[in-house]
Design a protein that fits this description.
This protein has helices at about 30-35, 60-70, 75-85, 110-125; strands at about 15, 20. The protein is globular. It has four helices and two strands. The chain has a single domain, classed as Orthogonal Bundle (Cytochrome Bc1 Complex, Chain D, domain 2). The protein has a two-stranded antiparallel ribbon with strand order 1-2.
Length: about 130
């Protein structure tokens, strides 16, 4: 993901390489993918982490994303599209909760398959 004041709604997956995770936060493969793709520039895993200089975080914490979208039909596909294509600042669920305005397109930083894995991982977080 790109840096700056962009709201990133990147979301990750429970099933990585076909294995169910006992503790999604401890999944080093997913964390490595998120870090190498630039996701951690705007996002944290856990809720309540401040952003730069004590401001609101740039993008929502993935635990918050998981709570917002868990169990919603089509959530993996919807969030994968958001990761790849970016989000609309006018329809954000995160207004006044984050300092970023929208998530930029990330198709240059991550493949669709890896974005889907990360989204699934994020939705498994609590």
């Amino acid at each position: 993901m790109h840096h700056g004041r962009n709201l990133s709604v990147l979301v990750l997956g429970l099933v990585m390489a076909g294995t169910t995770l006992a503790d999604p936060k401890a999944d080093t493969e997913a964390l490595k993918l998120a870090t190498s793709s630039g996701c951690m520039t705007c996002h944290s895993i856990e809720s309540g982490k401040p952003g730069p200089s004590g401001m609101k975080p740039i993008g929502p914490a993935w635990q918050d994303v998981a709570r917002q979208y868990k169990g919603k039909p089509g959530n993996v596909e919807f969030l994968t599209r958001v990761v790849l294509e970016g989000s609309n600042p006018y329809s954000s669920h995160w207004k006044d909760k984050v300092s970023g305005l929208s998530m930029p397109p990330n198709a240059v930083a991550i493949t669709e398959g890896n974005a889907r894995k990360l989204v699934s991982w994020i939705l498994a977080l609590n």
